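User: Could you write out the 3D structure of this protein bound to zinc ion? I've included everything you need below.
Assistant: Certainly. Input first, then the structure.
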Amino acid sequence: MPTKAAAPKPKARPKGPPFNLAKAAAAARAVSANELGQVPVLMIHRVMAKPQYPLDRSTKELYDEFTGMAKQGYVPVTAAEFVAGKINIPAGRHPVVLTFDDGSITHADFDGAGNPKPDTAVAVIQRVAKENPGFRPVATFFVNRDPFYGGSKPGVETMRWLTRNGFEVANHTTNHKDLSKMSRAEVVKEIGSDEKMIEDATGKPSTTFAFPFGSLSRAHLDWAQRGTKLAKWDFQGMFLAGWKPSDSPYAGSFDPRQIPRIRDKEKIKEDDCKRYCSTAWLEWLAQNPDKRYTSDGNPATIAFPQDKMIYLYTRYKEWACPY
Ligand SMILES: [Zn+2]
């Protein structure tokens, strides 16, 4: 059984329903809103013109995939926004979370004028956003020690550039080791030292975390989430490697400490990508629109068809807008 941690706090929402329920429900129905639907969280590694390893993606593949998502009405939100339930996107649109692991130079590097180099992940995201108004240029970068090593700027400056430009930099441990085999002290050191590096660079603690290799021990969940008395942090969301879309953060089944992600890859035979990687899942979500998260465009409500009421996490019932 997944352990239920503190769910995201609905602090962004006003207390009680300030909305006219009949009017909000009619608006939600008009766009078939389903804010209890599933959300793809993509897990991406290196991005380059010519991929070298199986986890790599080509710049063109990434550009084509993101452009396709933009045309389907997907709007990126960061991992931090997602776990906080701040999915403020227009009516009829679908959230997607773009996550990049391991702080590769292929994610963020800069030319002599200080602009992102065209083959980097950041440049691809910004280009797709420019060409498709409404596609927010945001993503989350889970980093380890020496992030963006070998780039034109020191890692500290790249982390600052990212946070200044609306991107999220978050914790992926210092040495990228399998935490499930470690003692409590080692786990705390691995996460705490990465946390210190990020906070020193950006001035802010991380609010999200990704387990290296998606590997965790249930016994570690509490320490991994909050640290100890001596070294404290407070992750609102912890991400796995996974193989399926995430439940909505408003669903009772959402476990903020074990959020699945989807490997970003076309339908190749290896690793069951024909079913479990991003191309396959994006197709499945397009073919099953009633299972996909669709916004009603109203941040004051959580809208969904009446028959999905059973999936709502009860703490959110004040904001419920069934139709
Ligand atoms: Zn990793």
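The CA atoms of residues 41 and 97 lie 5 Å apart.
User: Perfect, thank you.
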